[in-house]
Amino acid sequence: MPRSAGACRRADSCRRLGDRAVSRLPLKPVPGRRLDSEDAEIALEEVQRLLHRQQVIRELVHKQEEGEERGSLVESVLQRTQDAQLQNLLQGLHPADIAFILEALPREERQHVWNLVKAENDGQVLLEVGDRVRGSLIDVMDRDDLLAAAETLDADELADLAPDLPTDVVEEVQQGLTEQERARLSAAMSHPEGSVGAIMDFDMVRVRHDVTLEVVLRYLRRLPELPDHTDQIFVVDRNERLQGALRLTRLLVSDPTTRVAEVMDSDMLTLHPHDEADDAARAFERYDLVSAPVIDTQGRLIGRVTVNEVLDVIREASEEQALSKAGLQEEDLFAPVRQSVRNRAPWLLVNLCTAGIASFVASRFEDTVSHIVILAFLMSIVAGIGGNSGNQTMTMVIRALATNRINPNNVKRLIRRELSVTLLTGFVGALIAAGFAYMISGSLSLGVVMMSAMICNMFVGAVMGMAVPLLRDRFDRDPAIGSSVLLTFATDSLGFFIFLGLATIFLL
């Protein structure tokens, strides 16, 4: 069989395999069923298989013995077939799932898949992806594509995307908005990132307090649909000042002749545009809210915050905290090597310096270690246990700071409690370590030194675990940034110094 025929037959087999793989996916929304994270992971696997299959087919076609023109034609046909399968797969996915797939692909494959996403979904996908990945996608889009994507977004969504778009694109999109939409966009963009004003939604339902529930129901039936996450209707007066909220559950079960003022809730949580988004997220969690009104200084209703935006705030805060503990910023998983080096190198260099200092401290006790060689094996235990103990304390403190559970009235009590817990657990752990040191060395004095050093270093870890985040928070800095590096420096350096210093004094 000629090689070219084998290549074509294998390509045809690949197409059939791709068709069967795609047919296993829920490409179209199924009534009563929502796509979940497992579906997104399955879709990612299928996308990766199709992309790999494209690469295999391309290599096979390039190796065939026919003319260049014929080979290019075959490759073009197969490429279009595979792209059609990819488009069919992507068409049935939620924008959030498409964003998940894009973030998991290397840049070249990501851009290829991005070009296959339907234009009407571009705006929503750009909102869902992380900042770094969003930048890489926008870089490969031309001006017309960016305009088309931006024009599909609401004012509050456009405000989220505007910082990443070219200025001329934002200005042109603004010209196509209504006066009310331009005002909303300007208001949203005027609020700093991380504030309630930056995440509030302008799409909401308002009614007057002096109308009946029957009038409200007739008004709602004239709407094409209710805004997402509508659990309550906001009640305002003629000057748009917030009077209360009418819950949909109460609206549906109350007598239609009842006036709104009689069944509305006038005691409710309100937010201001300059409030911290993290504070709003904590309020949503504490009171199990779905939405909350945002009012200005005159009490006028200007927007609302919904639970979907709050979930994004919580997720971003969690990701930032996890990265900050290692001294990192958000990074594209497949970012260029140079960019990743710039992100990771600074704190690694700091860590290198702190490790060098710890090694220098240990080197000052060279004579002690040369006389009692077993100290070289035990000193890492002292440093490691102190670091782990301090990390536990630091994690508790950072979490408490993130949830606003630490204030001037309870900080002293918290410090006393953490030190007490550390000393008690340190005493128990130190007894075990002392027994281990005695068992392998036969020296009771070494066991006592080991026990004393462990208790002291765990105490150091607890102090550093509280001091670093509390001081950084006191000076309005992220308490998590570089905290683990500083903690390791303290427990290693002082752990070596304490252990070897005690050994020098009592064992030589």
UniProtKB/TrEMBL annotation:
Subunit (UniProt): Homodimer.
CBS domain boundaries: 264-320
Recorded family membership: Belongs to the SLC41A transporter family.
Keywords: CBS domain, Cell membrane, Magnesium, Membrane, Metal-binding, Transmembrane, Transmembrane helix, Transport
Domain of life from the UniProt record: Bacteria
Gene3D superfamilies: CBS-domain (3.10.580.10), MgtE N-terminal domain-like (1.25.60.10), SLC41 divalent cation transporters, integral membrane domain (1.10.357.20)
Physiological role: Acts as a magnesium transporter.
SMART domains, per the entry: CBS, MgtE_N
TM annotation in the entry: 368-386, 419-440, 446-471, 483-507
Compartment list: Cell membrane; Membrane
Protein name (database record): Magnesium transporter MgtE
Pfam families cross-referenced by the UniProt entry: CBS (PF00571), MgtE (PF01769), MgtE_N (PF03448)
InterPro entries: CBS_dom, CBS_dom_sf, Mg_transptr_MgtE_intracell_dom, MgtE_N_sf, MgtE_transporter, SLC41_membr_dom, SLC41_membr_dom_sf
GO MF annotations in UniProt: magnesium ion transmembrane transporter activity; metal ion binding
Gene Ontology cellular-component annotations: plasma membrane
Membrane topology label: Multi-pass membrane protein
Encoding gene, per UniProt annotation: mgtE
